[in-house]
């Protein structure tokens, strides 16, 4: 066993021990109702929470909401759901029993639909462009837990650090994907899931959702998807799922693929502000249908396309 693997094993053993201690007698519910009170009484637990990733969630979302009426509305709308994702993953790592809940980490249940499409298929390969986080808002985390492996790509500086921790068997690449290689301005938000290279989307969000702010911009070199896949997809490996969520830049990412060489069986793409009846008017729909895909499902902000025949016969 390598030193890195040994360190990870020791770390996970400590996490399991702490989680079991907190959960003893109260189940996973203790995480959402009593964890902070228990941390005040347990110095070891408190230090771990403050130093760990979940500590960032508490510090930035939950503790300030007790005193700040502006933050409290944000907390009520979306905070607890983020926390539950962290709790759920750590409880799984500790092999704790979980409350009755549909196991989904996507924003709109995309992972549940993909799970049905690939039901019984345990060794698939995915490519996740705009992966954001190993399990927060992830359409591929459930597949990873099922035994799938793949490539995670995100342009946000530092984004691959948690992937190396939680998805060590994946190929994790920090890179901006686009149809050409010229340097692009990339807008970093206080909500990292909104990071984008689309200046139009930044302006629109400033009017529609002013609670989110651009913190700064960086200039990044871009690479086409075809070049990344050519380098990193194992020889002879088919791509079962391509997930694209790059905040207003999805069509350019798709256009940068080599469709003769890489033809995913299922594609999930973000498609903002478009209803089912208007799908056929979008450039993304026209691009994919021209390449032999058909629309399988339309969710609020995303669409799922499949090749014919569909990947699952059920």
Q: What features would you highlight for this structure?
A:
single chain; 314 residues; alpha/beta; 13 helices; 17% strand
How would you describe what is shown here?
By secondary structure, the protein is α/β, with parallel strands linked by helices. It has two domains: 3-93, no CATH class; 110-307, 3-Layer(aba) Sandwich (Rossmann fold), CATH 3.40.50.150. Helices cover 41% and strands 17% of the residues. The chain contains 13 helices and eleven strands. It has helices spanning 3-23, 29-33, 35-41, 43-51, 53-62, 69-93, 110-117, 141-146, 160-166, 199-208, 225-232, 250-255, 283-289, and strands at 125-129, 149-154, 171-174, 176-177, 184-189, 214-220, 222-223, 241-244, 266-270, 293-298, 302-307. The chain has a seven-stranded mixed beta sheet with strand order 3-2-1-8-9-11-10, sandwiched between helices. The longest helix has 25 residues, at 69-93. It starts with a helix and ends in a 7-residue tail after the last strand.
SSE diagram, text form:
Elements: H1 3-23, H2 29-33, H3 35-41, H4 43-51, H5 53-62, H6 69-93, H7 110-117, E1 125-129, H8 141-146, E2 149-154, H9 160-166, E3 171-174, E4 176-177, E5 184-189, H10 199-208, E6 214-220, E7 222-223, H11 225-232, E8 241-244, H12 250-255, E9 266-270, H13 283-289, E10 293-298, E11 302-307
Parallel strand pairs: 1-2, 1-8, 2-3, 4-7, 8-9
Antiparallel strand pairs: 5-6, 9-11, 10-11
Helix pairs in contact: 3-4, 4-5, 5-6
